[in-house]
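Instructor's aside before we start: the two examples that follow are unrelated to each other. I chose them only because their records fit on one page, so don't look for a connection. First example below.
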Amino acid sequence: MTLTELKYIVAVAREKHFGRAAEACFVSQPTLSVAIKKLEDELEVKLFERSANEVSVTPLGEDIVRQAQSVLEQAAAIKEIAKRGKDPLAGPLRLGVIYTIGPYLLPDLVRQAIARNPQMPLMLQENFTVRLLEMLRTGEIDCAIMAEPFPDTGLAIAPLYDEPFLAAVPSNHPLSKQKTVRAEVLKQETMLLLGTGHCFRDHVLEVCPEFARFSSDAEGIRKSFEGSSLETIKHMVAAGMGVTLVPRLSVPKGALVPVPARRRKDDEAFVKYIPFEGDPPTRRVVLAWRRSFTRYEAIAALRNSIYACELPGVKRLS
């Protein structure tokens, strides 16, 4: 049994396809298949069920793959321990970020990380929460910035900040003249939502739960529309198609400062961002990583870089 063979079975379990697993491991498919067959013969168990269309892991194979992932992580930890003796921050950090945080946090975060820890470049991956959790479990990324809640997967969690939501309405909408807005008022409007898979969609539906029923039937087409990104939805708001909720960091700089519309640029002249009356709905943004991840200094350095970001309008957490 070798670490290479363990790497191969983890890759097949992740990709559910021998060809894609071979590509991910930078070997030919016959090389990978022979190595896995050798391991199955050695263990005298069948790890995978092969069919014409897909590969599935056997029940016993699930346990073996899970243990193999742990062994690979521990082997990698040996190298990390050696690196830490020279420079605990040496080498890239693989960071995942959900779609509704990445575009607004990463520009400032990358600048801060380069200035503070140039020897630790960030390898970035944007994706849905469920996919980032899977990538954390399989070791494809080291840590992830996500919004709670998400399933308890035994990860280590460090709260970063609480971020309020604002309402985004067309500049010619009657609500645009108000200084604050109540969630009850938005229930009468056409709500623009992110597509299924975005956790921010769920946050919006918590504020306006009655829109949940519109997202699953034909009638809803008249009451809610879906976009692929927050920026796309903002364009839809600017076009007068409806209203939406946005996280504070996604609000353009200066958009909350009263200025003549002619001095604003692009969609800023056509979208008004309105705070909620009283306690606003918020989301908690956290940094998550595997408890077995050994680069504690790298996690601490990343947190410090995040806290060095401007983060306007959010409540920082320690």
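Example two begins here.
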Amino acid sequence: MTEKTIKLEAVALNEFFGIQNENIKEIAKTYPQSKIISRGDEIYLKGPEKDVNKLEGLFEKLLSHFEKTGKLTLDAVKNYIEGETQTIDEFLNQKDVIVHGNRGLIVKAKTLNQKRLVEASEKFDIVFAIGPAGTGKTYTAVALAVRALKDKKIKKIIITRPAVEAGENLGFLPGDLKEKIDPYLRPIYDALEDMVSSEKLKLYLEKNTIEIAPLAYMRGRTLDNAFILLDEAQNTTPMQLKMFLTRMGPASKIIVTGDKSQVDLPKNQKSGLEDAERKLKNIKGIEFIELDGKDVVRHPLVVQILEAYEKADL
């Protein structure tokens, strides 16, 4: 008899085991000579060596499937047991799908320029995504970072933004700088919660596998083997953006997002985003993607609001 233990780190057990443990029961039915026992966040296997080895391989595949899709259906379990993984692999590689989020959510590029952003991130190590609110530039960038982490292409995700006040005074808010700016990073957290299970996200944040911090925290660091996202880059100064871009280490990717129409810097201060676009646009290895009103994926009225403001500013 052989014994093995499988660790279920940061896995939603009720979703992995299925309704009334139907997934585990199906596996147990297939290997009647072996015992499958759940102990907290571990699965204990005991049985004939051949069966236990097969069970270990099966659970590795199921955990990988759950990691990528955020769910594990009974049909998927049966397919893996029967060795019919081709249809599942095809499902995982659907065209335009960036990442499979929680509860079956499929995150994909919805517009032409979002697709261009996805393609650019695959070809270039630094990509600027510039466009108005609602064009999905930040959400798409977060999805690309999560995909890279799930595919083990990088070891961590770093998401940052400048601590610039948009008509509000950060100084009067309680807490340190990170605590003050966390509410401004809420859209980032919302996107991550769509794409990573709550248990896994909590673990990632605790271990700094996913790090969300103000831009000031990046100074003096070299960021290796990471997917780095700078949001709201229009509110950086040229020196801040230069500092950020030069933090890039080996095997890293950077996506910079920003909206040139929403600069909250003092009137006499030049935007680092506009400065970078002018200085870096001819460097090979850096790509600029422009998104516009056609890429807005919010309520249809948002498009009309953007158009009205653009006309008024002419």
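The first strand starts at residue 2 and ends at 7.
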